[in-house]
Design a protein that fits this description.
By secondary structure, this protein is α+β, with helices and mostly antiparallel strands. A hairpin with a 2-residue loop joins strand 18 and strand 19 (369-376). The strands form three sheets. Strands 10, 11, 12, 13, 14, 15, 16, 17, 18, 19, 20, 21 and 22 form a 13-stranded mixed sheet that branches. A seven-stranded antiparallel sheet has the order 2-1-4-5-6-7-3, with helices on both faces. It contains nine helices and 22 strands. The radius of gyration is 23 Å and the shape is globular. It has helices at residues 8-29, 36-42, 87-101, 111-118, 133-136, 185-192, 240-246, 305-319, 392-399, and strands at residues 65-71, 76-83, 107-108, 122-131, 151-158, 164-171, 175-184, 200-202, 217-219, 226-231, 256-258, 264-268, 271-275, 280-284, 326-335, 338-347, 350-354, 361-366, 369-376, 379-386, 407-413, 418-425. It has two domains: 56-219, no CATH class; 228-381.
Length: 426
Amino acid sequence: MGKRWINAMQNTAIVLLFALMLALMTQVQGAGQKDIGAFFESFPTAAAPSQPAGVGEAVGRGVAPVRIVLTGSYGRCGYTQITTHSEVYESAGTLLSEAVGSAGASARVSVPTFERALSGSGIYFDFICALPSELLFERVLDGGDGALSAVRRIFLTTDGAAQNVSLYVEDEGQGLCVFPTAVSSVTLADYLASVEEDNVSFAFELEDAQRLEPYTILPAKPPTLFVLAAANPLAAGTRTDALLSALDFNPHTQSRYTETSGASVILGDDRSLRIHPDGTVRFEGSADDPCALLRVDAASGMPTLSEISGACRTLLETLLAATETQLYLSAASREGDTARLAFDYMVDGTPVRFSDGLHAAELFVEGGTIARFSLRFRSYTPQAETAQLLPTAQVLPIASRYERSEPTVCYLDGGGERVNADWIGE
């Protein structure tokens, strides 16, 4: 495929086409939307029914977007717009859970070793965003220098004639490592035996994608996604009382005023709530806030990240109960007694990115209390119209202008009533 793009005339045509598309996208998304070149260069990294015990929801992460690539002896099949509640993940995740549960001591591996493994049979998981291993699994994985705290990519494969499956993990802090497992290689081979379709590649395998993030999943053709109608659920004012009551504010209080920005400010004892015109709410409290919904229950002592994640999810889902939107955990970190978590929206497995680069929700937990948070209220409804996405082959030469760019398809929310899907570079 690479030599087709050396042709200068085609490159010129592609750039012109992209420029025309961008002009339209900019008008729709608003002033906050960047041109596609700047978008690939500066858009921030994010920062996701029953499922296998030990993976995802079992420890409070909840439903989340995931990308899976199945590589068998006769083909490779990719699933790039699914969730951890999908049928594909439910079956592949069972093997992942068994592998993690039986993982032995880790060993460091080189990039060439990992890429050789990826070129063979196995199951590749991309969890979209890097999270601590304890939030992805029922156990903490140790990479040799302590717990793996920023895991995003995982690969299950057989190393040569080995009888059992190897678990490869990429951690943003500790790099690449491999764990031996008790999962039989025969079990993995049987699972992959029916894979025949070839519809995805990894960037490091393609001549014209060498400047991209090596493990970018590149579909042969982009997914079919619907245009979304978007709305601010707080705009009509009918949900304001429910919001105040949930956070233990008196809906009829006179301790309120309106800022010049248009934000409505409600005051309480050592706490405040700001409701902005765009649907963003900001709560400021303290570590001893009495509201039950802000409390993080712990089995013993200081709450774990898993317990904190579960409490934050409960808060957000309670506040968003009538909007039918889906949030997934996209960032989590802890320093001392304070934890920071972020959540973002998704629609049927496709993440939603805001044009200002901010998360849908950001929460700070002090000790056992959610002391402050922000949440942007949005609702999304799929329409009959499908999004017009450029073919993968036309995106590659433009994305390749930016070192280690990772072109992927997301919904782009500029704050208007219409949200389209498009390629972005993370």
